[in-house]
Fold this sequence. Notes:
13% strand, 219 residues, six-stranded parallel beta sheet, Rossmann fold, 6 strands, alpha/beta
Amino acid sequence: MKTILVTGTSRGIGKAIKEELLTNGYTCIAPTREELDISDVTSIEKFFSTCKTPISGLVNNAGINILGEIDTITTHSIQNMLNTNIIAPLLLIQHITKDMKQLNYGRIVNISSIWGVRSKEHRTLYSATKFGINGITKSLARELGPYNILVNSVAPGYVNTEMTQSNVPPKEQEKIQNSIPLGRFAQPQEIAKLVLFLISEDNSYITGQTIIADGGFLA
């Protein structure tokens, strides 16, 4: 069974992805922040210098979302968002594809967002990085396709996670749910099952795509 590296597995979607992979017999490498701090280039280098297991799949799930009006955005926020949401996934892909090319096999799933397809106020930084990861997905799908490495993005809408519960007031949650055709937020397990398919050998021909899972919200 394949070995998959998943980042950001302590809670929410990442935790659900890890559990789904383990339930289906995959070996899942889910490093803690002490083992792999994706905001630190040195930590990334150290992790791969000690990780000798051939990795055939990568789920770039870890990310941050700093909201704010344009005149409140700081240089530190910009750099932090870019480091975590763009630079780290790129570096992880760069390291992992060395083995994947040798194996002539690989599956990469980048967790994006509906705010990487459409945007709204106060999400300038977040949308910049999520539109960016979708662009990276398309470019790498073309570059890595000859090595049988498939690269896709999953763009969840509103998901019932701790982050959603803490960031979105109850009245706003109700309003949003009423605007979703399915009438509810996604459960993390629903996103995880989509990722499981894309990261598996069952996915043999889908690459370069940003797959939206939002209950019809953007429709």
